[in-house]
Specification:
This protein has about 290 residues and is α+β, with helices and mostly antiparallel strands. It has six helices and twelve strands. Helix content is about 20%, strand content about 30%.
């Protein structure tokens, strides 16, 4: 699993971000999971109930801090081994997300929960490392057939949602200014999303590097991308996914970006934020 069990780039609801004190879950239950299962599940409900089943602290840190394993340093000896079931309840339903669909307040709640219940202590360092620049593939700047500009004002969508009048999704698409997710790996649908949000999503979904938007494209776009998963998904190895009939004929993510979206990922080096784990403790059961 990469940074987020996605989570999180836009969860079921769009609203405006309001200034507030550091948000926190009202109720949190943490119990050890001794099932021996390999996979974990993450679920967020509009009511504000969040469940993370059979998750390691490593996976929870990946999601809460939006870092993959290569960008996390340190941790106790049980960091990648001990598994937990977490149920958390937000006091007033899911917190509002940013206008571009990024759930910064919910992530802040996850971080506070880890600090409170796992006594997690961290600090950030900036180091030079490999990154990807997201750029246009063609010299004539022509977009691919599955990257379609749409005239959607995400700030207005967010304001309408906050006022209790959410927009009606366009036919065949999910909520605007968000990614839609299915249970099938190798499938990506963005509904009126910015290139910055796409860059975040790509970093989460399998390239295992920071992705920086260098496309120069403004505005919002509909994205429909199919690719061969090259990372394990749902407890299934990448080798096994490659033999699945559903994915036959598909190229990998980087090739599919070029062919379907007209975008490319250019290898580069740049500043990478690294999360250093100073200490953590296994929580008491409740």
């Amino acid at each position: 699993m990469c940074r987020v069990p996605l989570l999180l780039v836009g969860i079921a609801v769009v609203s405006v971000t309001l200034p507030a004190q550091t948000p926190a879950f009202e109720v949190v239950s943490v119990k050890p999971n001794k099932s021996g299962d390999a996979g974990s599940q993450f679920r967020v409900e509009p009511s504000g109930r969040v469940t993370w089943t059979n998750a390691t602290l490593s996976a929870m840190v990946n999601g809460a801090y939006q870092r993959d394993a290569r960008e996390i340093v340190g941790g106790p000896d049980w960091f990648n081994e001990a598994r937990f079931d977490v149920i958390a309840l937000a006091p007033d339903g899911l917190p509002p997300v940013d206008a571009d669909g990024f759930p910064s307040q919910l992530l802040a709640m996850f971080r506070r929960m880890l600090e409170d219940r796992f006594r997690l202590v961290t600090h950030w360092e900036t180091r030079e490392g490999p990154i990807y620049n997201l750029a246009l593939d063609r010299a004539d700047r022509r977009l691919g057939p599955k990257l379609v500009p749409v005239a959607v004002d995400c700030a207005k969508v967010a304001a309408a949602m906050a006022a209790g009048t959410p927009s009606i999704p366009r036919q065949g698409r999910g909520r605007e200014c968000n990614f839609s997710f299915t249970s099938e790996p190798g499938s990506m649908q963005g509904n009126a999303v910015t290139m910055a949000v796409l860059a975040r999503f790509l970093a989460v979904e399998g390239v295992e590097r920071e992705v920086v938007d260098r496309t120069g494209l403004s505005g919002t776009f509909d994205i429909d991308l199919l690719y061969l998963p090259e990372q394990p998904a749902g407890g299934v190895s990448a080798d096994k996914l490659a033999t699945d009939p559903r994915f036959q004929g598909r190229a990998g993510l980087i090739t599919s970006l070029r062919e379907q979206l007209g975008l490319k990922l250019e290898s580069a080096r740049g500043p990478v934020k690294v999360l250093v784990i100073d200490s953590a403790l296994q929580p008491s059961t409740n």
